[in-house]
Sequence to fold (192 residues):
Amino acid sequence: MSKSSISKYYYHYYVIFILFLSLISATYGVSSVNFHATKTVNIFALCASITLYCAIIQYFFFLNTKQQWIIPRSWKSFQKQPLLYCLIIFPICFIPVLWLNFSQLFPMFYTKVSGIKSVEILAAHTKEHSFKGNTTYCLSNKYSCLPIFKINKDEFERYKNKKVVLQITSQKSSLGTIVYSIDHIRISEKNH
Fold:
C-alpha cells in the first residue's frame, strides 16, 4: 500500500493539535475562571465527552479498516496493544480535558452573554486542602472553592470556626454562575 493511497494519514495530528488546544483552554478554565456549572451541565458534559471520544476512536478504526489511515510507526506501544490504549490510556487523557471544556468554558461564555447580574448573600465556612505538602485555604460555599474564594493562612485563622457571610456580585444563567467579586465579608462569632 503506497502513501498516496492513504488519504487521511495525518488526521491523528489534527486530533492531537485539538487536544492540545483543549488542554490549554481547560487549564485556563480551571485556574482563572470563577464559573460554577449546574449539576445538569456537568452530567451532560461528561456524556458529551465520552460520546465524542468514542466517535473519534470509531472513526479512526473505520479509516484503518478502509486502509485510509494506518497507525504511525513511531507509536510502537500502541501498535502492540491498541485496545489498552483506546480503552484505558487515551480516555484518561481525552475525556477529562473534553469534560472541562464542555462543563466550564462553553457554559461560561453562554452565561457571560445571556446571564443576569445580581448581588447574592452566601453562608461560607473555611476549608483546608492539602496536596503533596502544599496547603491552600478557601471559603467554601455552595459554589465550592472557586479561585476567587481562596484565602491566605492568616485569613483562614481569622475565619476558622466562625460563621462567615459573603456578599458577592455574580452573573447567573440556566447553565451556571460566574462570581465576579466578593463585595463584603461579615463574621459571626457563633460556631457553626
Summary: The beta strands are 35-37, 116-131, 134-140, 150-151, 163-172, 176-188. The mean pLDDT is 84.
